# Entry
Amino acid sequence: QPLIALWRNHPEIYFRDKLGVEKMWDGEIAMLEAVPYAIKEHKNIIVASGNSLGKDFTCGGLVHYFLEAWGPCVVITTAPSDRQVKKIMWGEIASHAARAKIPTIGQLLTEEIKIGPDKDKGIEDQWYALGFTTKETGNMVGKFQGFHSPRVFVIVSEAQAVDDTIYEQIEAILTGEIGLMIQIGNPLRASGRFASDIKAKKDIVITLNCLDNPNYIEKKTVVPGLCSYAWVEDKRTRWGEDDPRWAARILGQIPKTSIDTVFGQDLIDRMVNWETKETRNFKGV
# Structure
């Protein structure tokens, strides 16, 4: 139990001592350090990130962490595409299990980790991780309602592409003793739930910037898997710093003009309180 208490307060120690993760950069560590605070304060975590900054790697390890440090519990991983769920998210989960200094708990399957009894047993005993796409959920409204446990953790990858109705379903299962949702993605859109949660700042918002990662700063591979200096500078040349892709995919910021919108967010913000000549005359100005 003392070891469990240590892991609950310091996920980075679990990553180092159990999963054998030797190198993490400040952005990944910030994600881990946010978890105990989010659980304690009943907040969610929103990670707005540039490309290739370790968000899926970190969340893959967090699946094992939640199961071991907070079990019995239910961990759900979801994303819009089958590739993102199966190849990327569960690929990272499997990689962590293979690298671990001490075997991770549970039976690791393709998109599931089995630990406790079958899902039709008592709610208090539910103990497993499961992955599926939001497309599956969208075609079966209420599918998220089948998951009940006092402790539920949901990781949403490519969060910017997830429909708002899916978030409503997720919130329906986060009503127990512990209910934590982690959203990770590139803020490519200036609208939608992911963007609004970033702007609201009611929960824990973490921004991962490609320019801050050690591979870019040192101009060499310091942490394997992170984006390189050459890749970032290529995009600076190809896109330019005024391109919305630079803001979203490099800086991890919501672009003023989304890639797929007609009217930019900066224009919308200016027009919200704009008064026409006719409006001013009506008010007697």
